[in-house]
Design a protein that fits this description.
- The complex is a heterodimer of chains A (256) and B (327).
- Chain A is an all-alpha fold and 256 residues long.
- Helix content of chain A is 75%, strand content 0%.
- In chain A, α4 packs across α6 and α8 runs antiparallel to α10.
- The radius of gyration of chain A is 22 Å and the shape is elongated.
- Chain B is built from 13 helices and no strands.
- In chain B, α1 runs antiparallel to α12.
- At the A-B interface, α4, α5, α8 and α10 of A face α1, α6, α7, α10 and α11 of B.
């Protein structure tokens, strides 16, 4: 399913012109044979718009999740590895950020930074990392106490070498799971921002952006809400399923 | 016990300090100032350079960062959050105005989350891989992946527009009917927002309950209870359930930021006059004092909730007290 989504994304350039075609005389048309998802408030075809938005939403989700993972694993990994005062300090930092409602921080960052895709990605990455950090810290702590890590240390390996060669590969499977959940989370976050009107600047609409016009026409054009949301729902489900599958695979491997 | 609480409190102090610093930095390092918002193209107003300077001085935006920080701290300590740039009323007054609506919404959402998630989780964990477990897993998974704003739009379309059962938005009809009809009217207005706010945390929490029960039921004391001839039901509820739920107490505190985040979206869609909407409006108008105040209140409330949850956990489980808990 994830592969299918990326395939749609790869084909989306073919739809770009169609999606941008504004025909005011065909505005707010219900779904029909010519427009299976109907048309929006400017007479643009919704199928085309949803397809064109696919790579935007997918890329932003992936990149934002990567930013969040890098920051989170950096901070969480350092806290877990060095322990002591560094751990105490970094753990407080994680706790501080965790206390804020994510959307509060996200809105503040997204609204106050200049609107551009890079900033949206940055805002999402910078607000969601604490969860990853806590996770990485726990994993590293667990791996550190195992014999092979202590053996490597006794053999005189440098901290960087232990971290990269010994701890990371062992902590990797659970981290992959959290990465997959992170992507679905980031896609949702981006959609929420764009829906609220502080995400990507128009007309480069993501699914959230297409949905943001739906409330204004809720009494006459249900298709505006249904189809872009369905795409979003399917994508988030796909990534969550992927994560769930990965999780089951890794925990089963551990049991054996 | 006292020592445990003391330790927990001591750890909370640096966190509190961190919250205050972060709130301050977040907004004062941001590029847009209220003076520029007042004169931006969006608002359609033109403000002369002199007037902008005047405004900056009026709000103390021309002074250096450390000085503003010192001022902010001294006011926060006195629980003075300043006054709104928009209507010049105290921030605390505006927060107090929005609080009842948000409390009603979030309180009900929290209640329904627990009232539904716990039985579902226990029933699913009680018979793993059973029919109910499988069906609920799929349902919870779907709920978990569903964006709040989409669910809200769908429910509005179906229940309000198509069927006309529930009002589209707002907190009551205008004018609000009196007496019993008024209460019914309020409840009807609450139904959709509460549903939208509940289902996400419900799905999240039910899965945790299930995992907890699953782990607890495989432990010796449950097997022992079953061997003594205690019924399945009693073994599940009295033994497995109690042990599974204890660790979940600590997670209750962390539900709060999630609910507040949801509030922003839900209150906006349903035009609910609460704190979430106040926050969003203040962001758009760059009303710093309100944004700062609300962020601070939200984060401190979360911190207190986590503290209370940890203390409750220690009260309920003596093992935590003795080990002193993890940092």
């Amino acid at each position: 399913m994830v592969a299918f989504l990326w395939l749609v994304a790869a084909m989306s350039p073919l739809f770009r012109e169609w999606a941008a075609e504004i025909r005011l005389e065909e505005r707010l048309q219900p779904p029909s044979f010519a427009h299976p998802f109907g048309t929006d408030d400017l007479g643009r075809d919704l199928v085309a718009r949803v397809v064109v938005a696919t790579p935007i939403s997918l890329t932003i989700g992936l990149v934002a999740a990567t930013v969040s993972l890098l920051v989170g694993f950096g901070i969480g990994g350092a806290a877990g590895y060095f322990g002591g005062a560094a751990d105490l300090l970094l753990s407080r930092l994680i706790e501080v950020v965790l206390c804020f409602p994510v959307l509060f921080l996200l809105l503040a960052l997204a609204a106050f930074l200049p609107p551009s895709p890079a900033m949206v990605v940055l805002a999402i990455g910078l607000t969601t990392w604490p969860a990853d950090a806590r996770y990485a810290r726990a994993e590293i702590l667990k791996a550190k106490s195992l014999d092979y890590a202590r053996a490597a240390k006794a053999a005189g390996a440098t901290p960087a070498r232990i971290l990269l060669r010994h701890l990371l590969p062992n902590a990797l499977p659970p981290l992959l799971v959290s990465a997959a959940f992170g992507v679905s989370w980031a896609i949702l976050a981006e959609a929420a921002l764009s829906f609220l009107g502080v995400g990507l600047p128009a007309p480069a609409a993501s699914w959230g952006g297409i949905l943001s016009v739906a409330p204004a026409y809720i009494e006459e054009a249900w298709w505006l809400a249904v189809f872009p949301g369905l795409a979003l729902f399917a994508t988030v489900s796909a990534y969550n399923l992927l994560a769930e599958g990965l999780r089951q695979a890794t925990t089963e491997a551990e049991v054996k | 016990m006292i020592r445990y609480i003391g330790r927990r409190l001591a750890l909370a102090i640096p966190t509190l300090a961190g919250i205050v610093v972060l709130v301050f930095l977040l907004l004062h390092l941001a590029p847009g100032s209220p003076a520029s918002a007042a004169g931006s193209a969006e608002s359609g107003r033109r403000v002369s350079a002199a007037a902008r300077e005047e405004m900056r001085r009026l709000y103390g935006l021309d002074r250096p960062l450390p000085e503003r920080f010192a001022q902010w701290i001294s006011r926060v300590v006195r629980l003075d959050l300043g006054e709104s740039f928009v209507d010049h009323r105290p921030v605390s007054e505006r927060i107090r105005e929005g609080l009842p609506a948000t409390l009603a919404l979030n309180g009900l959402a929290l209640f329904f989350t627990l009232a539904i998630a716990v039985p579902v989780g226990v029933a699913a964990g009680g018979r793993p891989e059973g029919l109910f477990d499988r069906a609920s897993a799929i349902a919870l998974f779907a709920l978990y992946s569903m964006p709040v704003f989409w669910a809200a739009l769908l429910l509005q379309t179906l229940l309000s527009v198509e069927l006309g059962w529930l009002p589209l938005y707002g907190i009551s009809s205008d004018p609000a009917p009196a007496g019993l009809a008024g209460i019914v009217d309020r409840l009807a207005h609450l139904a959709l927002p509460v549903t939208c706010l509940t289902y996400g945390s419900l799905a999240f929490f039910a899965r945790l309950v299930r995992a907890g029960v699953l782990e607890a039921r495989s432990q010796d004391f449950v097997t022992a209870a079953l061997a003594r001839g205690v019924s399945r039901r009693a073994a599940l509820w009295r033994h497995a359930f109690r042990n599974a739920l204890l660790p979940l107490i600590t997670l209750l505190g962390l539900l709060l930021p999630g609910l507040l985040s949801g509030s922003v979206i839900v209150e906006r869609i349903f035009a609910w006059p609460g704190l979430g909407r106040l926050y969003f409006d203040s962001i758009l108008s760059r009303d710093y004092p309100v944004v700062l105040g609300l962020s601070l209140v939200g984060a401190v409330a979360t911190l207190l909730a986590t503290l209370a949850a940890d203390v409750a956990y220690a009260l309920a489980d003596p093992r935590v007290r003795e080990e002193g808990g993890s940092a």
